[in-house]
Design a protein that fits this description.
The structure holds 2 protein chains of 2 kinds. Chain A is an alpha+beta fold. Chain A has a domain of about 110 residues: GIY-YIG endonuclease (3-Layer(aba) Sandwich). Chain A is about 15% helix and about 20% strand. Chain A contains 2 helices and 7 strands; from the N terminus they run ββββββαβα. By secondary structure, chain B is of the alpha+beta class. In chain B, about 45% of the residues lie in helices and about 15% in strands. Chain B contains 10 helices and 10 strands. In chain B, a hairpin with an 8-residue loop joins β6 and β7. The chains are: A alpha+beta, B alpha+beta.
């Protein structure tokens, strides 16, 4: 029970009074995380970029991937994001089957071998997916290589500053501290 | 009030109904349950069909090349066009074409050449940027975006929130405060090219809808020519307000369409689903839900057609439009809720469109003015001018 007597104690956006300020978006450098600041004691964290931890495709059992709706990214061993996908309402096993299907499809390309992935659960998978594509275009000038066959977003986004020059995967737990990557197949 | 349809209206309704059931609904089987667009080839084919039917550009006035439908016929079509999964927010997936921003019909000829006509030809897209983080229900007082004159130009600074289509728009109709008047007499409408330096679409605003998101805009020292002022300086709110009233009738009709389809599904299910030795339709609890659905549907239809007929007669229809919007959006929400209850478990799934309508109808009680604002509009008329 929150201190305000309600059943919900999490962050709550408070409407800005007409006589006072306006929301300001700020960005922690490189975090890809924007905090929408509304006048009042509460802030709404808004993650424009996908900030979940990267997972090694070889280290994760398929059953560990939730069979739920959501979005995901595939990256190669060098950290280049290859594909942004989503698990929609027709996906038989949600993210679990959507990631597996995408790994197989993306992996067929000569320059595209997925090595890691990350995902975010969301019922708003379509708008989130399009947002991630727009952010990728903003950051790198184009959609990921495996999205270039018809997934170009129609819109454009200019998110808050502080974006990395190119979207890259953060080091995974399986990497050595000095940055060398573990070898091995899937 | 005569609710009988003319022969022409009956023919248009039947044609639209056939189009939805035979052309639109079958395509949705292969689309994501939350999809907001058809495959491009299907879209092109169906747009061609609509053009052949003579309905393309459904909201474009006849003098600009549209079919020139009256408000009542347009409302009747809206009721039919929304009776599919995506129909609430994307009736027939836009295959009937758009009209652009209605305010541009009041623009200067030069502005029409630059913005309206290319929009009607499908070459440009516009968006309507009124609501701000400071509030949307009382925009005349909530607008904090400021416009200052600088020579022949204006400089705009501020933020807009819940703006649909801004990320895809070539221009935006932006409302800014341009005088010290804190109310409706200090707001000016500007036509703003979205590639103007300082205009940014900062983020997607995710809502209950998985598709057709809204956006947040930021305006930082955006320079716009005086030639891009729409209407008179400080008289822009009247332009916005006119749209808000007119839009409520088809908006309400869309809600009614979803409710009618949900009721149709509920009746089919109740007649066929058996529990405890008999079909659901034999049980009084279900019968009453079906009846309550029908009452909500007929109330909404009456209010919508009354508002539309008054608009067609050239009479004041602001109160009727507010009532139609209120009754239809709230009633449709109840109808879909009851229909889900009748369906049981499958009603909660994405196998059926009910869950999508349930989410989207919740937004309809807020969009185009929340229920409380509709009541406020009606109260002003009932209680008289002193309470305005």
């Amino acid at each position: 029970m929150g201190s305000r007597g309600g059943a919900w104690s999490g962050p709550v956006p408070v409407p800005v009074a007409a006589s006072t300020g306006r929301p300001r978006a700020t960005n922690k450098e490189g975090s890809g995380r924007v905090r929408l600041r509304l006048d009042g004691p509460w802030e709404v964290p808004v993650s424009v970029r996908l900030t979940k931890p990267w997972l090694d495709l070889q280290a994760v059992e398929p059953e560990a991937i939730p069979a739920q709706l959501g979005v995901f990214e595939l990256a190669d061993a060098d950290g280049e994001v290859l594909y942004v996908g989503y698990a929609g309402g027709r996906e038989p096993f949600g993210l679990r089957s959507a990631v597996a299907t995408a790994v197989e499809a993306v992996g067929g390309g000569a320059d595209t071998t997925p090595a890691r992935f990350r995902y975010e659960l969301t019922h708003g998978y379509l708008s989130r997916w399009e947002e991630l594509l727009m952010v990728h275009v903003h950051d790198s000038g184009s959609v990921p290589i495996a999205n270039q066959d018809g997934d170009e977003p129609r819109g454009r986004l200019n998110p808050a500053t502080g974006a990395p020059s190119r979207p890259r995967a953060e080091p995974t737990p399986s990497e050595n501290p000095d940055g060398r990557r573990n070898k091995g197949g899937m | 009030m005569d609710l009988t349809l003319s022969d022409e209206q009956q023919m248009i309704v039947e044609t639209t109904r056939r189009f939805v059931s035979q052309e639109i609904a079958p395509l949705e089987v292969d689309l994501d349950p939350d999809a907001g667009a058809l495959k491009p080839a299907d879209q092109d084919r169906l747009v061609g069909m609509v053009r052949d039917m003579g309905f393309y550009g459904i909201d474009i006035p006849a003098e600009f090349g549209g079919p020139g439908l009256d408000v009542t016929t347009r409302a009747l079509m809206a009721i039919e066009m929304s009776q599919h999964r995506a129909g609430l927010y994307n009736p027939c997936y836009g295959t009937f074409g758009g009209a652009g921003l209605a305010q541009l019909y009041e623009a200067t000829e030069e502005q029409k050449e630059r913005y309206l006509y290319p929009t009607l030809r499908g070459e440009l897209r516009g968006c309507f940027a009124l609501t701000e983080p400071s509030g949307g229900s009382d925009p005349a007082r909530a607008i904090q975006t400021r416009g200052f004159q600088d020579g022949d130009d204006w400089i705009l600074n501020g933020a807009k929130l819940y703006i649909s289509g801004a990320d895809k728009a070539d221009y935006a109709l932006v409302f800014a405060r341009t005088s010290d008047d804190p109310g409706r007499n200090g707001v000016t409408a500007f036509i703003l090219d979205t590639n103007t330096p300082g205009f940014s679409v900062r983020r997607v605003v995710h809502t209950l809808r998985s598709t057709h998101y809204a956006t947040e805009l930021q305006l930082e020292d955006v320079r716009v020519s005086s030639g891009n002022v729409l209407g008179e300086v400080n008289k822009g709110f009247a332009i916005a307000n006119d749209r808000l009233s007119r839009q409520r009738i088809p908006y309400a009709a869309g809600c009614l369409g979803a409710a009618i389809k949900a009721q149709e599904m509920a009746i089919d299910w109740a007649r066929s689903r058996e529990t405890f030795g008999s079909v659901l339709a034999a049980k009084q609890a279900v019968q009453w839900m079906i009846v309550d659905n029908e009452i909500d549907i007929r109330q909404a239809r009456w209010c919508i057609l009354e508002a539309a007929q008054k608009a067609d007669r050239g009479e004041e229809f602001r109160t009727e439009a507010a009532m139609a919007k209120l009754v239809a959006s709230e009633g449709a929400g109840r109808v879909v809720d009851r229909s889900m209850q009748i369906h049981g478990g499958i009603g909660m799934t994405k196998d059926l469109p009910l869950e999508r309508w349930y989410r989207e109808l919740r937004i309809r009680r807020i969009g185009e003015g929340p229920s409380e604002v509709q009541r406020l509009i009606m109260a002003r008329e009932l209680l008289g001018g002193s309470y305005k």
